[in-house]
Structures are given as structure tokens and as C-alpha cells.
Amino acid sequence: MEEARRPNQLFRNLNAKFAAIPMVLTALVVFVGGTIWTIVYSFTDSRLLPRENFVGLAQYERLWSSSKWLISIQNLFIYGVCLLIFSLVIGFILAALLDQKIRFENTFRTIFLYPFALSFIVTGLVWQWILNPQFGIEGVVRSWGWTSFSFDPLYNADIVIYGILIAAVWQSTGLIMCLMLAGLRGIDEDIWKAARVDGIPMWKTYLFIVIPMMRPVFITTLVIIASGIVRVYDLVVAQTGGGPGIASEVPAKYVYDAMFLSQNLGQGFAGSTMMLLSVLIVLIPWAYLEFGGKKRG
Structural domain of residue 76, as residue ranges? Predict the structure, then answer.
């Protein structure tokens, strides 16, 4: 019986399967094909135009011996860890507050989510003005009489990445809040009632009961944040252009500069491949946790 059912299942929904063929071909040719092409040509000495003159790992050796690339990796690590922590913590706290069914909830939710509707270029330019020593926070505070006050992270090479981080947290927290709020609204009311009856403090209810139940929401949120971290580019260009000097360089900007400014495609392809590797490091554990667990279940 089972063998007789298999052909029937194969020919079900033929219209939908035929309609999906262009999308599947596009994914295979454009995304998979483009990825393979990039990896292959990262082992060549391509300059302005691609050429099949393979040089082994020379591009990767040059990549990892470049101080600009090393600084960009360091910045990406600091930016990524801090953005994950701050956006998750602040987003969850805001979601927990809104979940108390406060008045004007829709208004607050719109206000918190509004920054996410802006492009990173707009966000970067706005925060560049806010953090400007003459016209921004420092200038305003000094005009009040605190002439020794100093707050110019975008002009200090030691802390410039934190100035970019402020803008990123401001823009991304609203989305994280909405995702967390959706997860909290999916928690059964009986769980809250049982916790109150047992006298469990609210913070323990969140920490030991609610958060573990929201595991799928947290995993999805982590993947969304991580993918944005790896490809951060516009925010840096809009705020600092990679400066002061090369203090705020990030991998995506390094790749762009190598390919379009230095006209060194091989070096840009090598940087792109390393960025792809970092994406796979994020996606493979996520796929295992999402689909591997369901398969075992």
C-alpha cells in the first residue's frame, strides 16, 4: 500500500511545483552558482577583471596579514557581542513591560518600532549629528555650563565602534521587542496564574519558566541579529566612513574597498568567502537546533 501511495504523492500539487521551478532555478544559478564562483576565484590573482590564474592561498595569506582586515574582524567581534547582548536584554525588558497590558500600548509599540523603519544610512547620519561634538550631545551639555564634559565617540579611535553600536542598538531594539512580545503573548495565561498561586516571584517566572518556553523565538531572533551583524556596512559608512583612520573598519567595507576602490577582485572574493564562512557558523547550529531537534522528536 505504501509503495502505491508514493507515486500519487509525487504527482500532487503539480501546478504549485511547476510554479516553484523558476524560483528554484534562480536560487541555484544566482545564489549557489554565484557563491561557488566567488569561492573559486578567491584562489586567483584577479584584479580589475576575473582571470583563471590560480595562486593557491596567497589571497588568504595577504588577507590575514592585513592590519585593516584584522581591525575589521576585531571591530565586528566587539560590535556583534555587544549588539547581541544589549538588543536582546533591552528588547526583552521592553516587551515584558508592554506585556503588562499598559495604556497606550499601541502608541509605545509604534514609537519603539519606528527606528527600524529607517534605513541604516538615515540612522547613521542622524546619530552622526547627535554625536557631533559641536552640535550634538557634547555641544548641548557644554552650553549648559559643563564646559569640561566630553562625549565624542565617533572622533575617538579607541571607542569609535561603541558610537556605531549606539546607533545600531537604537535601530534594532524595536524589532527585537516586537518578536519578544509576540513570544510572550503566546504563553498560556494558566502558567502565570499557577506561578502567582505558588508565590513564585515574577523575575523567577520569567527566568526559569517563560524564557525557556520562548526558546524558538530567541533562536530566530539570534539568527536575525547575527545576519545583520555580519553584513554591517551602511551604518559605518554613514557615520564614520571607516575612520578615524581605519579604526572603525568592518569586513563588508573591506570587501567593498578591495573590489571597487583597489580593483583587486581576488582579495575581495577572499574577504567575501570568509564572511560566508562566518554566516555558515551561525546558520548550521541554528538549522541543527531547529530541524535536528524536531526530527529526533
Answer: 62-296
Q: What is the DSSP letter of 155?
A: G
Helix boundaries (H) for 27-151: 33-41, 58-64, 67-98, 105-117, 120-130, 137-143
Q: What does the DSSP 8-state code read for residue 28?
A: I
- Indicate whether 135 belongs to any domain: yes
pLDDT tens column, 223-249: 888 888 988 999 999 999 998 999 999
Domain count, the chain: 1
Query: Tell me, what amino acid is at 221?
Result: T
- What's this model's pTM, rounded to 2 decimal places? 0.86
Considering Cα of 11, then 17, then 21, then 27, what sign does the dihedral take? negative
Grid coordinates representing 179? 518578536
Q: Assign residue 225 the CATH number of its domain.
A: 1.10.3720.10
Buried b (16+ CB within 10 A) or exposed e, 269-291: bbbbbbbeebeeebeeeeeeeee
User: Which residue type, as a one-letter code, is found at position 243?
Assistant: G
Q: Residue 240's closest CA among 56, 75, 26?
A: 75
Q: Which residues contact 252 (CB under 8 A, 6 or more apart)?
A: 230, 231, 232, 233, 275
Exposed, middle or buried by CB within 10 Å (0-12, 13-18, 19+), for 125? middle
pLDDT tens digits for range 78-102:
999 999 999 999 999 999 998 887 8
Q: How far is it, in rounded angstroms, from Cα 291 to Cα 297?
A: 10
